[in-house]
Design goal:
Two copies of one chain form a homodimer.
Chain A lengths: L5 H4 L11 E4 L8 E4 L5 E2 L4 E10 L2 E7 L8 E2 L2 E3 L6 H13 L4 E11 L4 E9 L11 E7 L12 H14 L7 E4 L6
Parallel strand pairs in A: 4-9, 8-11
Antiparallel strand pairs in A: 1-2, 2-3, 4-5, 4-7, 5-6, 5-10, 8-9
Chain lengths: ~190, ~190
């Protein structure tokens, strides 16, 4: 996981020619962009995908306790910014390895959660653990498998994680796991 | 729709301070990034979401014939780069308005297609047209409703569009439209 926020606050110079940029509406466009005053390059800014997993072992799910901000010390599902050159599923699998040293099989798209005010889309895959084998990566304080009744609901790091867990326990009653879409309008813990 | 490709080729200067950037592995990271030689800002590059729709009116679907490159003159579903501040569904609805002057209701997530070699994820929503009302936007030469037997399969602009249409006509036989995931490994028309 890395911060993709940096760009949004500090786009002052053209990454192509080094000249100053200003905010204006380019020809043929209908919204303000960062445009280079020198070479006219338009520097678009677009939402990022956060790819994650819901690791399942028998009747338990795996959570990681965060060793980094934001939400240090809170519990989360493995997730992070998708990288160029990988698929969403590969991103989710990579984050699961990095944060929890867990290998998943039979991964299935499960939730897609829009968070427009921070320009992010969370995409979670359900994944099965063949063995109860896991350990904390450098971004995790600890990693544990939880029964539903033991989930630390008041200590979940992000609303997208809580939504995904709630869908899962509800859908598990029927054994049907259709893809769920959700919207988070502002950040709440 | 705009080109988000520009950044990938031409990241030479720091958008924060204007100094030169070089490609190196930042501390605590495991891959090469563009890092500023002056202020050490890391300039991450991440996949973009292309949000689109499959507009349906009775037993027909709407396609647009492209007035722009790439694939000028070929038929496509309305789609384009998702913008900051909107949801995936809002992006798909906006593109449908921009390219075909069509209003959709009852939109449902339908396909998510990874295209890792161009750092894109296509996300298509099925949407219903209350009326057969549409017209070409500036990026379209013409817009038409097609019966399945009239789809110009050999003139479809992008593999992601062809996949989405094929899923739709197959799923329509049963009336069940589960979310479909796909992977495109390299560009083919």
């Amino acid at each position: 996981m890395h911060s993709a926020y940096i760009e949004f606050a500090t786009l002052k110079y053209c990454s192509s020619c080094g000249d100053a940029v200003s905010k204006r509406i380019p020809d043929g466009d209908d919204r303000h962009r960062h445009v280079c005053d020198g070479c006219d390059t338009v520097h678009y800014q677009n939402p990022c995908i956060v790819a994650g997993s819901l690791p399942v072992y028998e009747n338990r799910v795996l959570l990681c306790r965060r060793a980094i901000e934001p939400a240090y010390g809170y519990w989360t599902l493995p997730a992070g910014f998708m990288e160029n050159g990988e698929t969403t599923e590969e991103g989710a699998a990579r984050e699961s390895r990095e944060e929890a040293n867990v290998e998943l099989h039979s991964m299935e798209l499960y939730t897609m959660i829009d968070i427009p005010h921070i320009n992010q889309v969370y995409i979670f895959f359900r994944g099965q653990m063949a063995q109860p084998t896991y350990s904390p990566g450098i971004e995790s304080l600890e990693v544990e498998l939880f029964l539903e009744e033991d989930i630390p609901w008041s200590e979940i790091a992000f609303p997208s994680v809580k939504m995904t867990l709630k869908h899962f326990f509800e859908d598990r009653k029927t054994g049907n796991f259709p893809v769920r879409t959700d919207l988070i309008k502002r950040f709440r813990r």
